[in-house]
Amino acid sequence: MRMPILALLLTASAALSLQDHRDLLLHPEAKEFTAHAPARSLVRFDTSKGTLDIEVTRDWSPLGADRFVNLVRDGYYDGARFFRVTAGRWVQFGIAGDPQVAQAWRNQTFPDDPFKQSNVRGTVAFAFAVPNGRTTQVFINLRDNSPTHDKEPFTPFGRVVAGMDVVDALTSEYGEGPGGIRAGKQDPVFEGGNEYLLKMFPHLDYIKTAKIFH
After folding, report:
1. Which run of H or of E encompasses 47?
2. pLDDT digits (tens, 9 = 90+) for 28-42
3. Alpha-carbon span 71 to 57, nearest angstrom
4. Less crowded by CB within 10 Å, the N or C end of the chain?
5. What would the CATH number be for the domain defined by 32-212?
6. How far apart are CA 103 and CA 134, in angstroms?
7. Can you tell me the mean pLDDT for 73-89?
8. CB–CB of 57/40 below 8 Å?
9. Looking at residue 5, what is its pLDDT?
């Protein structure tokens, strides 16, 4: 049976939209990535384990909120793996599945924000290795990590408001897996993207889509 003309047009439109997003993501210097996030945003993640919602509060971390919302808006996190899951401690993600996109953003650092919100269970912050070194990688606190993470400080920009059970259920089979930014093990992920992760860590959970819900 032939696909109806309207369905064909919608499919073509969706493919064009995906290509447009990719073209933009390959240019981190684009003005679209400097837009201010709203005072509050709700980001919905459709994952391999279910749906979770992250409420982003710009006042907590203005530059962090801006970076995260802009990346979500243009599909950076779609398809990304939860590549570092330490049970009872944290879940980390934020290396794009497309190696070209991931490498385009790898060194796109932005300044630190003043610390306001503690790293309690469910809060979300950017990972970093050095001061003013945040880029795209994000972690969710699975417990109250304030005794260690507030000292750095990792500055939360949001919190999980629905679906924390989904976060808890993400596979921790590989533990540190490719490792954190400081572990020195991420080069193959940036070079091989999801193809590498599927080969070496085939059971990793992943983000299907991340969308600004409101």
Report:
1. strand 40-47
2. 999 999 999 999 999
3. 16
4. N
5. 2.40.100.10
6. 14
7. 97
8. yes
9. 54
Amino acid letter for position 4: P
For tokens 């696909």, the residue is 3
* Three-state DSSP class for residue 7: helix
Q: Which residue has the tokens 């400097």?
A: 34
DSSP for 69-109, please give it. Answer: HHHHHTTTTTT-B--EEETTTEEEE---SSHHHHHHHTT--
- Among 72, 71, 42, 74, which Cα is nearest to 58's? 42
Task: Examine the pLDDT at 3 and tell me if it is beyond 80.
Answer: no
Nearest to 99 by CA among 17, 196, 15, 183: 196
Per the structure block, which two tokens stand in for 37? 């996030």
What pLDDT digit, counting tens, does each position of 156-196 carry?
999 999 999 999 999 999 998 888 888 778 999 999 999 99
* pTM exceeding the 0.70 threshold for the entire prediction: yes
Q: Please name the amino acid found at residue 123.
A: T
Write down how long the chain is.
Answer: 214
Convert 143-159 to b/e letters by CB count within 10 Å (16 or more is b): eebbeebbeebbbbbbb
- Indicate the Cα dihedral angle 57, 58, 62, 63, nearest 10°: 70
Sign of the alpha-carbon dihedral angle for 176, 182, 131, 67: negative
